[in-house]
Please model this.
Amino acid sequence: MRRLFSALLLALVLALPAHAAVDASKLQLPGDLTQAQAEVVLKGALAKAVEQGVPMNIAVVDAGSNLKAFIRMDGAFLGSIDVSIGKAETARLFNMSTADLGAASQPGGELFGIQVTNGRLVIFGGGELLRDAAGCIIGAIGVSGGSVAEDTNVARAGVAALEQSHKGK
Model:
């Protein structure tokens, strides 16, 4: 049965024309970050990182917290790759900046210990939410490579670039 299924699947794949164009707009979920938006975010964040003179890892995730775009500047710490992705995912998973989540998770805080509950949560600044023109969360950005303040500045520059692009429409 398994061989029959595999053969049918292979026949189906081979029957599809290789040049068949896919209308990506039919595949994009409403309320999700587009590639064009992710590129705007990366460009804004990258400009701020260059201005600060600090090589950064910059990750952008979509509404489902899936990696949508990433850049590792020349010289950025290898160890910060996962941290930047973790910051973006954490911001989206909890619908708040990683700085706000970090403040709520300090000893005695309501969310104390949350960082050890879910694999790769990151609870210090550098993760910010991304919203569409109507204010709906469509993704998040995470930045790592400098100080917490430098990471936060770069993440917020990415957010600001997206917000500015909304005004141009």
Observations:
- DSSP finds five helices and four strands in the chain.
